[in-house]
Amino acid sequence: MSALQLPLGSFGGAIEFIFSEQTSNVTGGAKVGGLEQAVELALKQLEVTALALAVALVLALPLGLYLGHKGKGELVLVGLANAGRALPELALIALVAALIGIGLVPVTLALAVLGIPPIISNAYVGVRQVDPAAVEAARGMGMGELAIIRKVELPLAISTVMGGIRGATIAILATATIAPLAGVETLGDYIINASIYGDDGRLAGAILVALLALSLEGLLALLQRRLTSDGLKVKTV
Amino acid sequence: MSSSLLLAAAGEVGGDFFKERTSDTLPCQAKPNEPFCFDWARENIDRFGTPTVQHLELVVISVLIGFAIAFAIALFAHRRSWLQPPLLAATGVLYTIPSIAFFFLLLPVTGIGKDTAIIALAAYTLQIIYRNTMLGLANVPASTKDAARGMGYTDRQILWRVELPLAIPEIVAGLRVAIVSTIAIATLAVFIGGGGLGTQIYGGGNLTFPTSVFIALAIVLLMAMVFHVALLVAQRFLTPWRKARVA
């Protein structure tokens, strides 16, 4: 077997695993793989990601925008952003599984914890970077503080705010890959339980997780374009 | 061996299994509901030494490789603006692919072990470092470059003596974010047999018990803090003409 054939062969086996059911050589003849199973696991991963993102957004986005508008709490948010980056997702999942429990709700909460720091700190920074003159002008035109946040600061800060949301989404989706350790069967099951799915299954899991992450990131980039006000769509460097 | 069997049993049947027994007679591993067990921690702290060293090695090597590559492509793309969007997109793809998936995509080519982990972790840092370096270079005022040109500096001298020194805060900030994130993500190296502190969180195909996870977590956070502060100090030292800016 030449060095080139070996990798190509593995990828062929993984693709086959995704599309056609086969007999596991470990679990006594049980069927593994196939498109139906792959779709089911992918949907589970998307479900837990969406739930966690929703929780993180509800908690972090309004607070970040508000604190940015008021210009308060910078030190706390900088610390939170740094601590969030340093938090190992594997330890988080392990502690949640051991101390809170396994299943969809504990995992959703754990993933939401990962999403909060980037969303809140980017919302804060984005709003802080808005030209104070624009805010003054809005105030002069008789806008209330909430209207200023919603109609002036948020649109002007949308690229930074969306940057945080995209970062949070990718972090949550990536960590949802190890959610099977806490009893939520996502595509990571193919990777973590390779003893059941075999090498082909494990590689198939890696391919599917990578594709899922890239598609989601692409979708969010499109969403960001849609959300950007037409007046702001200048070509960026 | 017996304690790992007990641990496996604890994982399967949960707390009920042990309720009838007096918890004193059980080893710490078999008390899944006990958040932290000081006796075990005192007796077993030495088993975290090697994983900590492995973890440091994973992080330092992969960030150094990532920095060398990202810095080089940033300098190359600096005056070739047509290269910048594709490079940003390419590093973005490497950044977006979850590390654990990246490990196993590489597996057929590079095999089990820490090399595969280092490649994936280095690939992850590229975008952070590349983006910050480009941002730092872009933030240098045109008037400053004009002044340097007026004093007879060549393009190369302007880059090394004017633009790069002025871009240091952003470059070091990128390095800081890259290191801290890599310290956290390197725990996943355990899945590809790369060693590190992840081995004390997930071992032998099972999650370990909370005491071990807490100790590993504490070492990871401490490591991140040390690097964070060290780079803030380094930044201040490297840019004596300005106060360190906290990002």
Radius of gyration of chain A (Å): 22 Å
Classified by CATH, the class of chain B is Mainly Alpha
Q: Output the structural class of chain B.
A: mainly alpha
Order of helical and strand elements of chain B: HHHHHHHHHEEH
What would you call the structural class of chain A? mainly alpha
| Total E-strand runs of chain A | 2
Give the integer mean of the pLDDT values of chain A: 86
Q: How many strands appear in the DSSP assignment of chain B?
A: 2
Terminal Cα span of chain B: 48 Å
Spans of at least 5 consecutive residues with low confidence of chain B: 1-22
Binned, the helix content of chain A reads over 70%
Structure description:
The complex is a heterodimer of chains A (237) and B (247). Chain A is mainly alpha-helical. Chain A is 76% helix and 3% strand. Chain A has helices spanning 5-19, 35-70, 74-86, 89-100, 104-128, 132-140, 145-156, 158-176, 188-192, 194-227, and strands at residues 21-23, 31-33. Chain A has a two-stranded antiparallel ribbon. In chain A, helix 6 (132-140) packs antiparallel against helix 7. The longest helix of chain A is centred in the first third of the chain and has 36 residues, at 35-70. Chain B has 247 residues and is mainly alpha-helical. Chain B contains ten helices and two strands; from the N terminus they run αααααααααββα. Chain B has helices at 2-13, 16-19, 38-44, 49-78, 84-96, 99-110, 114-138, 142-150, 155-185, 210-238; strands at residues 202-203, 206-207. Chain B has a two-stranded antiparallel sheet. In chain B, helix 5 packs antiparallel against helix 7 (114-138). Chain B is elongated, with a radius of gyration of 23 Å. Chains A and B meet through helix 1, helix 3, helix 4, helix 8 and helix 9 of A and helix 5, helix 6, helix 9 and helix 10 of B.
